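Appendix B.2, paired examples.
Example (i):
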Amino acid sequence: MSTTQAGARGGTADPAPTAKTLRGLDALNFFLADVRDGLGPYLAIYLIAVRGPDQGWNEATTGLIMTIAGVAGLIAQTPAGVLIDGTNAKRAVVIAAALAVTASCLALPFIGNFYLVAATQSVAGVAGAIFPPALAAITLGIVGPKMFSRRIGRNEGFNHAGNAVSAALAGGLAYFFGPVVVFWLMGGLAVCSVGAMLLVPADAIDDDLARGMTKEQEAARDAAGKDDAPSGLATLLKNKPLLLFAGLCALFHLSNAAMLTSVGQLLTHLSGKDHATSLIAICIVAAQCVMVPVAMFVGAKADAIGRKPIFLAAFGVLALRGVLYTLSDNPFWLVGVQLLDGVGAGVYGALFPVVVADLTRGGGRFNAAQGAVATAQGLGAAFSATFAGLIIVSAGYSAAFLALAATAGLGFVLYLTLMPETRDEAAVGGGSDGGMSSAMPATA
């Protein structure tokens, strides 16, 4: 942070963002909700219901496309975090990523070749890797460490509200205009996302706080006139709790990522392509409506309750959800079970950046660490679609849901027995700076 910026922001004082800046951050999370993940589950519906087997698309080929895009995205995760740590132009990076994701998805109706579809979705995956570290970094740089947990919960609340609204619009409009309506909607939301990003002033983001430095480190560096680089990426590999957390995130997404996609495919077979998009939109809206209060609750109570018991609840609910899907093929039952996605995903989204911040405070590599953990997360998500798709083709939907549930159960056991309570780590080094210690923990 430059001397000018330090003076403008009050030196080492806690950030005091304006109401306009915070409203811009709310709007950014709301409108980016549907853009950041590209087409998401609608990709499977579009390829299976609109293109169909006559054009070579089934559960297995669609799953392979999603895996290829996921692998491309996970390869980009760590470089994306490094980019966010190093750049002071975070707004421009977010805008460029939003436009890249949107353009890649809007090209889909005009191409049919498997390799071209894989290429466009891979571009969307790479660009989408920018959003998680960028939004967390912008938030930390605006509100500082003391308010980070609560603000991340609010971010996730607006993100899920945005998903719910966009899914409701997609479902309603698809009833009249067909599945292609999701492309129109995505284009409109991308424009709104760019406008929301511009509502957040560049000078409202403290770029040193945004990469995980403490106020004391900033003050000492500015006083010495130095511009120290953050700790090396190799330091992250010595952080055993961080590596364990990365593995647990991979298991969570290996279980979770394919559940909604598989339900969408099942609903396509049960209800036909004319109603599949509307039904999956109902699933999304139902889950997102639950995620909003869950994320808000987690953000407000994570410091009081602790990270570990809340994360264990997410794994447990995910396993239960997979089992319940097997009990009935009734579309209303499937939509009802999908409500549980709101609990698991709501907890995960609100706690993921908080736990990473706990484990990396003081090293200046918060966003690189987010990218590294997200790489493991993305690896699990990328293989989830193929994992479930192959089981569906060979053994049916019930077997696939049970396999996904068993994966979540394994994650629960490992988190319970091996993962430390990271809130305690924050308290040990915390003091008056809201839990931001000067050293990154290297062991459990």
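Example (ii):
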Amino acid sequence: MSHGVDRLWSVAEHLDNILGQLSPLDPIDLQLLDAQGCVLVEDVTVPTSLPPFPNSSMDGYAVRVADTKAATREHPAVLEVIGDIAAGSGEPPAVGPGQAARIMTGAPLPEGAEAVVPVEWTDGGTGGGPVDSMTAFGDDPGGASGEVRVHRAPEAGQFVRARGSDVTAGELALAAGTVLGAPQIGLLAAIGRGTVTVRPRPRVVIVSTGSELVQPGEELTPGRIHDSNSFALTAAARAAGAIAYRVGAVADEVETLRATIEDQLIRADVIVTSGGVSVGAYDVVKEALTSLGGSFGDDAEDAAGHVDFRRLAMQPGKPQGFGRIGPERTPLLALPGNPVSAYVSFEMFARPVIRTLMGAVDVHRRVVQAACTTAIEDSPDGRRQFLRAQYDKRSGTVTPVGGAASHLVKALAYADALIVVPEEVTSFAAGSEVDVVVLD
């Protein structure tokens, strides 16, 4: 069944209608590395303070402040070295009056010590002047004993990382809604979390349609072109946070397309097609999905769902389709086939769908205001136009690249933003302030 083809939908109406039918995917528990790119659904608190014990921030000597407060280059403090404290040491030796312990970065501060003297402030136990580094233990096991001359006095607590100086027990580590990147996963590991509860990354299946499409790397025969949409949209889905699967181009055959989509439903949280949604005689997506039959369900209003095809007040991207299909009512977005139309449509509609399913806080691309460096002389009345452009953050300007034609792939490759020309605006002068969708 087809709905809404008798009127022109606005971009906002179409997007609101889509997102209004969706809710985030159910949370699951994942191992840390499997949770990369996912959205946290729970507040995570710190179970144990970090660092859990006072430790050294330098390679040097753990000392008592009273023993070194008068130390100078000419009159160094001479201390007895009572042993080594390496990172990972259990119970280090206590430091008494006149003593020092050789200590490595990250090693626990021993009892009695109040500061760490960097090795560069000492003779390193050599009996000479200041040194640049310690002699390796394997080369000189005796370096953990004998004497050390300290040429400069540290302050109390200097070069010591206090217990809890990073985070303290009970403190909020990460809030629900956080997207887990490398630093966040590092923090979770540091506080001892092996698993975390997140919303999974949506699985998105990308299907290109068109009998004229040839896989990149294969030779073109007359009338054929390489399939670029499936690659661009798969990359865009990954950039949005999805796990994306690219299906090779499907020929313009209704039953083949239906069978392909049916096969993909088992691994899809979203299906995105490109091509075949306009008014031509071979617009196979529209023909295949408007009247859903076979395994999709004979009644367009039953649990198998339906797909609506609409005309949008938008350029590029006028023809669009959206519906819920299959036993799980999997969302399907049918995008136009021209490369620029497909990409712009993906950014406007499919990306917010992916972000909504993953539970992201920032569903939409960032929109900024910038001065357009050139005049726009002819934008279609009643349509929201999206022009490819380059945005200069430093100067606050934006410059169109390429023309308005929806097949110009090269211009798209040079664009990092989209200028939004409102429906009621047909032209504007150079220097005018415009809305800019930043594609970063």
